[in-house]
Amino acid sequence: MAAQPPAHPVAVSIGPRPEPVHTIAVYAFDGMAPFELGVVVEVFALARPELTGLLATPWYGLKVCADRPDTPLNAVGGFSITAHHGLDELAAADTVIVVAVPNTFSGEVSPGLVAALRTAHERGARIVSICSGAFALAAAGLLDGREATTHWRYAELLQQRYPLVKVNPDVLYVDHGSVLTSAGSAAGIDLCLHLVRSDHGAKVANTVARRFVVPPHRAGGQAQFIEAAVRPVEEEDDGIARSMQWALDQLAEPLTVTQLARAARMSDRSYLRHFTARNGTSPMRWVITQRIAASLPLLEDPDGTVEEIATAVGFESAATFRHHFGRTMRTSPTAYRRAFGRGVA
């Protein structure tokens, strides 16, 4: 006998639909150096209790993917890792990161990876490279006609092999929205923090950078690192660090090289020389960068005009603030607020 339907509809109570988790897939391969992979894992997979109350959407979900999942991959240093996800899952991710390619100089790029990158890009995924990973993006045709960067050692080779790419060897990263490339190794940290800043705002990115014990935004480009001699540790280094901390505590006030040198207990000339050698930029350019970084969370808050924010972070006028903001961030304070302001999509 057929079952009779219930006399009354059964009410099912469901709560609000949970926010989807932004999935990040990173490519791993046999023979890889672990640093860049570790950076991606550290930024996007680490539990972050320090962000409680700061996130409007869930933190990321990370998948490490390989051509052959569940197959041990040898890593530089004499150990192995096993990726549990394959290229199908890489192609389906919201953000795909290629941290390097094997045998950069031989030109070998996994055909499976190339196909997955094209599929992900056609779906609208964000495609990211770190260091020699740019060669995989170029092999997939995703950098044709675009400006891109890679490790300075590989820049000339990337340009020769893929002449349609506009290689810029002097920057830490290049952001085209859907396609992003970064320079070698530690520049991957800069780009990962930039992704966090784009997705969650400056306050969250600054918090992640603080736990990383790195600046949230570095001044200058990778040109400062090309063939640079390793500098011996000097006694004045403590003075430089002391002056930088002092400047951060005084950002809203007018600052001069003489004041910074005095905080470091050095002459102006000696201070300029040691500061530039240590940081790859001049003291006042560094101060400007710190002021820009301090302005980002203020711009994300709906309160306060651009003029008020300019004064709060130490610029003498809104015009000066706009000029330096544009040079550093490649956009205007107003456009940044429109893109990242709280409550604005």
Q: Order of SSEs, N→C? A: EHEEEHEHEHEHEEEHHHHHHHHH
* Number of distinct helices: 14
- DSSP strand count: 10
**What is the terminal separation in angstroms?**
56 Å
Gyration radius, in Å: 23 Å
Strand fraction? 5-15%
| Overall morphology | globular
Instruction: Please state the average pLDDT score.
Output: 86
The secondary structure category is alpha/beta
**Main beta-sheet annotation:** 6 strands, mixed
Classify the helix fraction into a percent range: 40-55%
Q: What spatial order of strands do you see in the largest sheet?
A: 2-1-5-6-10-9
Low-confidence stretches: 9-13, 223-236
Describe, in plain words, how this protein is organized in 3D.
- By secondary structure, this protein is an alpha/beta fold.
- Helices cover 43% and strands 11% of the residues.
- Helix 6 packs antiparallel against helix 7 and helix 12 crosses helix 13 (318-329).
Q: Could you outline the blueprint of secondary structure elements for this entry?
A:
Elements: E1 23-27, H1 34-45, E2 61-65, E3 72-75, E4 79-82, H2 87-91, E5 95-98, H3 111-123, E6 126-130, H4 134-139, E7 147-148, H5 155-161, E8 166-167, E9 173-175, E10 179-182, H6 187-200, H7 202-212, H8 236-249, H9 257-264, H10 268-279, H11 283-300, H12 306-312, H13 318-329, H14 333-340
Parallel strand pairs: 1-2, 1-5, 5-6, 6-10, 7-8
Antiparallel strand pairs: 3-4, 9-10
Helix pairs in contact: 1-6, 6-7, 8-9, 9-10, 12-13
